[in-house]
Every structure is written in structure tokens, then in C-alpha cells.
Amino acid sequence: MDMKRLLLLGLVLATLACAEVRYVGETYTPTTQVDVYFDEKSIEHEFTIIGRAIGTGGFGLSTDKIQKKLVEEAKQRGADAILITGVGKDSVPIGENSSTDETQISASFLKYDD
């Protein structure tokens, strides 16, 4: 394997090993505590959905690390809680003849009304 391909492979693997969050929505003053819910019925506060996010990670990255990245993003966006709305995998191309599975977690960012 030549040096360019080795460098490209290393860059791809490093990128896939990181969690990334894509967010669309409103931003408020940052918060320091974010509650995590997996069922809307368990939320005891009135709330407003301020945005939606997808956390992604590949190359064996755990869902726990992706969830932590979502929580950090929620703090920066001023959310009081996140509601995990889905977990799945997507095949992502990493070259002409190969791909890798990428774990995705979708979430709603919530702001408490009370």
C-alpha cells in the first residue's frame, strides 16, 4: 500500500472513530444539566421541542459515546433534556469499493416550560 492510500485510510478511520452531531433548531443560553429520556411518557415536565439532532459514529464507536456527544451538544444549545427517538445503522461509503456501518442516534432537544 502506497503512502497516500495509507494516509487516506488513517484519516478515514480517525474520522469514523469520532462521534459527530448534526443539529437543526433553536439555541438558548447554555445549560449545565441535561436529562435523557427514552420514552416521552416518562417526562414529568411540560416541554417544547427546540430542535432535532442526529448523532453518528462509526468504526465500532459505542452508542454510549454518541449519546454523551448528544448531551454535550444539548448543553451548548441550552436544552434541558433530550428524548432519544431512534437508534440505527447506516452504510457509509469510505472508498470506491468499500463501506462501513455507521451508528446513528436521533434525538429531540427539549426545553422545559416550567
Overview of this protein structure:
The protein has about 110 residues and is α+β, with helices and mostly antiparallel strands. The chain has a single domain (about 5-110), classed as Hypothetical protein apc22750. Chain B (Translation Initiation Factor IF3, 2-Layer Sandwich), CATH 3.30.110. The protein has helices at about 5-15, 65-75; strands spanning about 20-25, 35, 45-60, 80-95, 100-110. A five-stranded mixed β-sheet has the order 1-3-5-4-2, with helices on one face. The model has no long low-confidence stretch (mean pLDDT about 85).
Salient structural properties:
single chain; 114 residues; alpha+beta; Translation Initiation Factor IF3; five-stranded mixed β-sheet; 2 helices; elongated
SSE layout:
Layout: H1 3-16, E1 20-25, E2 35-37, E3 47-58, H2 63-77, E4 81-93, E5 99-112
Parallel strand pairs: 2-4
Antiparallel strand pairs: 1-3, 3-5, 4-5
What's the short version?
This protein is an alpha+beta fold and 114 residues long.
**Helices and strands, in N-to-C order?**
HEEEHEE
Identify the CATH architecture.
2-Layer Sandwich
How far the N terminus sits from the C terminus, by CA atoms, comes to 60 Å
Q: Name the overall outline.
A: elongated
CATH class: Alpha Beta
Mean pLDDT across all amino acids = 83
Largest sheet: 5 strands, mixed
Instruction: Please report the number of helical segments.
Output: 2
**Structural class by helix and strand composition:** alpha+beta
- Spans where pLDDT lies below 50 across 5 or more residues: none
Residue share in helix: 25-40%
Rg value: 17 Å
* Number of DSSP E strands: 5
CATH third-tier fold name: Translation Initiation Factor IF3
Strand order of the largest sheet: 1-3-5-4-2
Domains, number: 1
In CATH terms, the superfamily is Hypothetical protein apc22750. Chain B
Strand content: 35-45%
